[in-house]
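Example 3.2
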Amino acid sequence: MIAPDEPVPGAGQVPGAGQVPGAGQVIDLDDLSRAVTVLRGMAYEHRLHILVVLRAGEATPATIGEVVPAHPTAIAHHLRHLADAGLVRRSRRGRHVYYALTTPAVGDLIDGVLALR
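Structure, written as tokens:
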């Protein structure tokens, strides 16, 4: 029996989630929640299109708007969601704001998603 103040072994973890059958790995629920946030962040056509544009390098919202068929307000909204999901970072230089992918892993994720058929 576990004492009331003692942590329950395996609490906060999902056995078998995200593993190869038989590997016996455990994934933390916080990690799983983070993955869901990232995938939701890119789960819209315009957001994924923005990420594809940013794979080539940083860009301003105006530059993104030249490629992504959406209203500038919608592009700003999508960029905010992508930043909240940790997929893009924002930097200001003078009067201009630039967006870029946060890590090369985001580009790898985009490549992987686009490779699915």
